[in-house]
Structure prediction request, 511 residues.
Amino acid sequence: MNSTMQPVGPAISVENLHVSFGRKNQAVIKAVDGVTFAMQKGEIFGIIGESGSGKSTLGRAMVGLLRPSGGELMHGDVSPLALPSSEFNRHRRKYQIIAQDPNAAFDPRMTMLQSLCEPLHIAREGRRADRIAKAFAMLERVALPPEMANRYPHELSGGQKQRANIARALMLEPRVLVCDEVVAALDVSIQADMLNLFARLREEFNLTYVFISHDLRVVSHISDRVAVMYFGKIVEFGPARDVIDRPLHPYTEALRSAEPEVIQDRAKARKRIVLQGEIPSAVNPPSGCRFHTRCPRARDVCRADEPKQRELLPGRHVACHFAEELMAQAEPLAVQPSRISEASAGL
Amino acid sequence: MIAMALVCEPRLLIADEPTTALDVTIQAQIMDLLLELSQKTGTAILFITHNLGLVAQSCHRMVTMYAGEVVESGPVWDVIASPRHPYSSGLLHSIPDSSRPRGTLPSIPGRVPSLRAMPAGCRFEPRCSYAVPECSATQPIQHIADREVRCHRFAELSLAGAGT
Prediction:
């Protein structure tokens, strides 16, 4: 391990974070627009939302890959953006990101061994023999056989490539790993293997994860807490299962109801909400609550005023004018205790 | 894409992973559109996907394929609630489910065999936790009422379906 001590307290905290794109004479796109939360060390923090909600931008800004246009970012008690650039580069090695597309993540002309050693080479860490030994050790940790080291990316399956991608991210012994849609392209059985691997690596390497996905099942399975993003803002966050099983924001409710159900009793009991349209243009955000253009519960106040985020239940934060109303209602989407779920003792 | 496919009023529409990588909200819109069209025009839809939830929600009948063979078929909810082939059961079981305690997800060990090294008998046998020596013999597909299964042990096994 690196000799630097792990900071106490939150692993990453952001306060009123803004990330905007665009030049002065162009329309500014506010991809992340005032986000505040703190992630604890060792936590798995899920971020869900549709394409264009700003979740990947937030993930990249959290590790310092993108420079925020406003607000504060803290890695433990370090303010990474205040560091001089040489120190920032060294600091950033402990905050790694794994991207969605493993095909784009590897140089097709490099063997897996070369790709795995590259981060250490760039960081000038260790001698050649040490790097190679470490690469083989990491392959083993992600359950890839050693003969994979001499293969080229096209010789690996999708699941193997994603494992190699994880192995490479671990080479610099990160504290925080941002996983951006890492299981989206895999089929269910391989997806289950990968989720199990992530859980195991968290224990082995004492990692903190940011898990970005549009798959609610995946996020609620792996995460401790989740944040639901819509149009650059967090509309709801709290303990993962509570948020998914009993949404308190109409957007979360709609996402939940759009997720196809595999259990017949639940599918029948399910109230389906099909949201119309897509996320509106980022150049011209709607007034008031940004979700009002698609919200089945929207009323006049939603067009005029932006709802404030408040803590409705311990640890559960929601930004919706009618969240209290939603909470008071019977739980339309909660899992009904049925014969099936009572009998569910797992395999 | 869908408009192009429907211009000639086809009798059959083959939709190969039409919503993979889309957001759930957009996926719901596309599925509603497809199902509405199919009802209005009588177009049959062959829906190819690895999303079992979508199959459950949209289809009448389903076929599970493994390594180039049909291993099971039947009415959707019957197969999902009580699969008769260990492969269908394994797939259904590896879906994360919020009513189960968190922890290790069940998954199917091993990989799909390569085309050059296809097992002679049951093709799923090397990965199957219910395999017995007889499984190395060729497996014919068996018909039971409105269902089919390619597993000689189907009657003695009681396999887990979704959510169990």
